[in-house]
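Might I ask for a little of your time on a matter of protein folding? What I wish to show you is a protein chain and, alongside it, a tokenised description of its three-dimensional fold. I should value your view on which stretches of the chain appear to form regular backbone elements. You will find the record immediately after this paragraph:
***
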Amino acid sequence: MKLSIVIVSYNVRRYLDQCLESVKKAIVDIDTETFVVDNASSDDTMAVLPQNYSWVKFVANDENVGFARANNQAIRQSKGDYVLLLNPDTTVGEHTLRDALKFMDEHPEAGGAGVMMHNEDGTLAPESRRAIPTPWVSALKMLGFTKRYYMTHLPWDEPNQIEVISGAFCLLRRKALDEVGLLDEDFFMYGEDIDLSYRLLKGGWQNWYLPLPITHFKGKSTRKTDYRYVHVFYQAMLIFFRKHYNHLSLFYTLPVKAAIYFRAFIALIDLLRQKLHL
């Protein structure tokens, strides 16, 4: 088996439908298996899509177990030499998977690869290339200086080594996964891609950006206007920081932790204002 594709869905039936249509065109002549793990959607995902996509292995969870744990469910069942973690709110280019696999085959030092993500309006998504959020990089980003974090010095039209592969399209070598481990299930949602990317680098593998197109209908699989989103997002930031940088002195860690709490507080205030104006 060449490729195992894993898609985790939650109340995004329409986007998942178009995602699977794009995948069907992209996997022609590739030995592939595709998993959809549904995290107890309340829409008609499981009532409609399994009968339309008989080539997809659907897994229905009784509860929302989170992004990392749901991906791991399918990864443990999968058999491909490569595993692709793919968001349901994406569509992939017809040649994207074939070209990405070719690159990975030709670069055995590559543990994982991400691609050129386009927003719904056609613009390039800066999170296609990201740096590890070290205390210094995190501080710069929170102050509004994002060039280092988004690695803007890299050209868009050439393959380049990067540090963080986006979880929206994360192509992983099975051997690398076996060595560094699966997604950390302490992350319910957000941050698990940063953590896995960091562990790949620490394990001696390379992470790559490839100029191959996908469209990411960003955020359609999450609701960013409720308090749960704010809590989960900033909790993920804290989990990553505590896991990888807690050994540093308070001189380095305290300002970053304070900034995370401050940004979370500001986000909650903004949400409250939005609610009051509805």
Remarks:
- The CA atoms of residues 15 and 89 lie 5 Å apart.
